[in-house]
Design brief:
The protein is α+β, with helices and mostly antiparallel strands and about 140 residues long. The protein contains four helices and seven strands, in the order βαββββααβαβ. The chain has one domain (about 10-130). α4 (about 115-120) links the parallel β6 (about 95-100) and β7. The protein is globular and about 40 Å long.
Length: about 140
Amino acid sequence: MSDLDSSGLDRLTASLRVYSPNLDPERVTKALKVQPQWAWRKGESVRGRPAVVGMWCLELESEPPDPIDAIRKLLAATSGDTAAWQSLRADYEIDIFFGVWMASDNAAFSIPSDLMMELAVRGVSVAWDVYESVHD
C-alpha cells in the first residue's frame, strides 16, 4: 500500500501507454519484453474510426485501488533495460495513465522518491483522470 491512506478511492485503472503518430507496436513489445492488452498503428480502425496516433497499452485494474502498487506492478511486468526505455523515449511519448473513481470527496497518497526515480530514468510521465463515483 501507499504511504498515505488511499481508502477514499473506489476504483483505479492504470495503463502504461506508449504512443506516437509513427508508433511501431512490435518495436515496443520487443523492447519492453511484454505483450500489450491492445495496440494499433496510426490509421488502423479503432472503434470504427481511423486512429490519429499509434498506441501500445499495458493495462491493469488495481484491487484494492492503490496507485503506487499499480505503478510498481506495471514496471515489474516490463523490461528493466534502461537503454531500451531511452530508445523508445527518443521516438515516442510514454506515460502511466490513471483512471481514478473516488469513493469519497478526498483521498491522499504520495509517490515515493525511489519510484519517481524509476519513472524518471525510463522517461515515463504520470497522468490522471479523476471521476466521481456514482452509486445508486
